[in-house]
UniProtKB/TrEMBL annotation:
Every Cation/H+ exchanger transmembrane domain range: 12-443
UniProt protein name: Cation:proton antiporter
Source species, domain of life: Bacteria
Keyword presence, Nucleotide-binding: no
Originating species: Streptacidiphilus alkalitolerans
Length: 571
């Protein structure tokens, strides 16, 4: 009964804080942490000590999957270099710098344990940053980089943490850490791709939204558990599975199933994210009491945590300079690359001699590669950002509850362990509140322009025209017949053509429907045929990268609503 009351009170508190946060313009995770800290010191509130395995193996996989499945795989690929630099190189740099700081400030801790704590405080939590960015209209590319970093950097941090903990009891060579990391990434990627592909194929055979959504809830663990059992990164396997599932679901899953799954996963992700931030705040009193019981100075731990927070922020700011410069160079190179691709495309279309390395390539395949390459170049040219965007990314390095949970996995015989837990908490809360509360002012002061809404509208009109042309061809196909092979009634066919052309509900058919024809059934079948034709054309266009992910998502949503409206209900 007590656990039930705690759960009910927790959900009510989460919803209430979320409502208030929206009204006052503060990101809900920030408010939940503050509420949790205040509640932890109230009389009668029990000491909260969350098992780290609960967070890292039960809560983290579905959270990462929920984020990855909604991320554009094309955008993730295009910004993979920036994401990996932040999620791998920056995490390693922060781990090294923080490790040496802790080793200096805590005599007797040992370099291995110091690096373990450095790895713990290195990964960022993108939840608060992205919630603020969406509310203030940050450009999509910045959001993709922040979300992508948040998805991948946990894997880097946990691998480094595992190596550092192993080094506390035995000798670990640097080359072995590098080899283990590469193997972990490769195995996790393979597992993630296989699980994502297989589960989408299996779920595509379930014509029931409830069963489909229920199965989707275990998909993150189907990727996480085998990868961990093979000594790879379960976190990275989950992220890969989410990216693959999100990319393939429009091709294999029914629209009705995907719409139902989206709502359910949004609810699950909201409760898990909110709950973990609330629990993070509730643990403060427990961490303080543990440090006091161990006879370790609380003020000393808080001071070290504040210094580590400043160090982490400084390392991130310094790291972003070369990153922004690299992105600018990529944009400059994309100009010349686009020119070369245009020249090659002209040669291909006019039948001129191609360079030797392309002579044996199939012309259709080469044409597709040229279109994708040109689209990638256009992306880097048109959606670039300068130092202002870099400053937003630099100031979005908030840590979160994963840092607190990972700290609790330190061995019980680690020197200064209670103090280390408190240091990790101080770093997480300091970066979360300091940067999270000031990030809106930073964004407004920098005046970063959002996505070009006018360009997106024009692109959506162009895309709609291409989809409409495909529908016209599909409805004019002489082979378009009913299930029993009979042609469709001409009056109903004309009505559907009118509806698909005007996007308005047409009047009654101008002609007379033949006797024995069920107009509702034929109307529904033709509308589904038109929507499926648009879906096939959209997937074909998406493979070329001709439109940005925002326009593609808008078109996909429109098609999903049509398909869900006219598809046969389950059973």
């Amino acid at each position: 009964m007590e656990l039930t009351l705690i759960a009910v009170f927790g959900v009510i508190s989460i919803v209430a804080v979320a409502v208030v946060s929206r009204r006052i313009g503060v990101a809900a995770p920030l408010a939940l942490v503050v509420v949790g800290i205040v509640l932890s010191f109230l009389p009668g509130v029990p000491h909260i000590e969350v098992e780290p395995e609960l967070v890292l193996t039960v809560v983290l996989p579905p959270l990462l999957y929920a984020s990855a499945v909604h991320m554009s795989a094309i955008d993730f690929r295009r910004d993979l270099k920036a994401i990996l630099r932040l999620a791998v190189l920056l995490v390693v740099a922060t781990t090294l710098c923080a490790g040496y700081l802790f080793s200096w400030l805590l005599p007797g801790l040992g370099l291995a344990a110091a690096f373990a704590l450095g790895a713990i405080i290195s990964p960022t939590d993108a939840v608060a940053a992205t919630s603020i960015g969406k509310r203030l209209g940050l450009p999509s590319r910045l959001m993709t980089i922040l979300e992508g970093e948040g998805l991948v950097n946990d894997a880097t941090s946990l691998v480094l943490l595992g190596s550092a903990v192993a080094a506390m009891t035995s000798t670990v060579h640097l080359w072995k850490v590098g080899v283990d990391f590469v193997l972990s990434v490769l195995i996790a990627t393979v597992v993630g791709v296989l699980v994502g592909l297989l589960t989408v194929l299996v779920r595509g055979r379930l014509a029931d939204a409830v069963l489909n959504t229920a199965l989707s809830f275990v998909v993150p663990f189907l990727a996480f558990l085998p990868a961990e059992a093979m000594g790879a990164s379960g976190v990275l396997a989950v992220v890969t599975t989410g990216l693959v599932s999100g990319h393939l679901s429009p091709r294999f899953l029914r629209a009705r199933d995907r719409l139902a799954e989206e709502v359910n996963w949004q609810t699950v992700a909201f409760l898990l994210e909110s709950g973990i931030f609330l629990l993070m705040g509730l643990q403060l009193r427990t961490l303080v009491d543990q440090a006091q019981d161990a006879g370790q100075g609380i003020a000393h731990a808080v001071g070290i945590g504040l210094l580590a927070s400043l160090l982490a922020i400084a390392v991130r700011i310094l790291f972003l300079g070369p990153l922004v410069a690299s992105l600018r160079r990529d944009a400059d190179r994309a100009e010349s690359f686009r020119t070369a691709l245009d020249d090659l495309a002209d040669r291909l279309s006019t039948g001129q001699e191609l360079p030797h390395r392309f002579k044996k390539t199939d012309p259709k395949r080469l044409e597709g590669r040229l279109r994708r390459g040109r689209s990638d170049a256009e992306f880097r040219i048109n959606e670039t950002f300068g130092w202002r965007g870099g400053m937003v990314i630099a100031w979005s390095g908030m840590r979160g509850a994963i840092t607190v949970a990972a700290a609790q996995t330190l061995p019980t015989d680690t020197p200064y362990r209670p103090q280390l837990l408190l240091i990790a908490f101080v770093v997480a809360v300091t970066t979360l509140l300091l940067q999270g509360l000031t990030l809106p002012r930073v964004i407004r002061a920098l005046r970063i322009p959002g996505d070009d809404a006018a360009a997106d509208r024009a692109a959506f009109i162009d895309l709609s025209s291409e989809l409409a042309a495909r529908v016209t061809d599909a409805l004019a196909d002489p082979g378009l017949t009913t299930a029993d092979g009979a042609p469709y009634d001409p009056a109903i066919l004309d009505q559907v053509r009118t509806w698909t052309a005007t996007r308005r509900q047409p009047p009654a058919p101008a002609g007379t429907v033949a006797e024995g024809v069920d107009p509702r059934e034929q109307y529904r079948d033709l509308i589904l045929a038109a929507a499926n034709a648009k879906q096939d054309e959209l997937l074909s266009i998406r493979s070329t990268g001709a439109y940005n992910s925002r326009v593609l998502a808008q078109a996909q949503s429109m098609i999903d609503n049509e398909l869900a409206r006219f598809q046969e209900p389950e059973g």
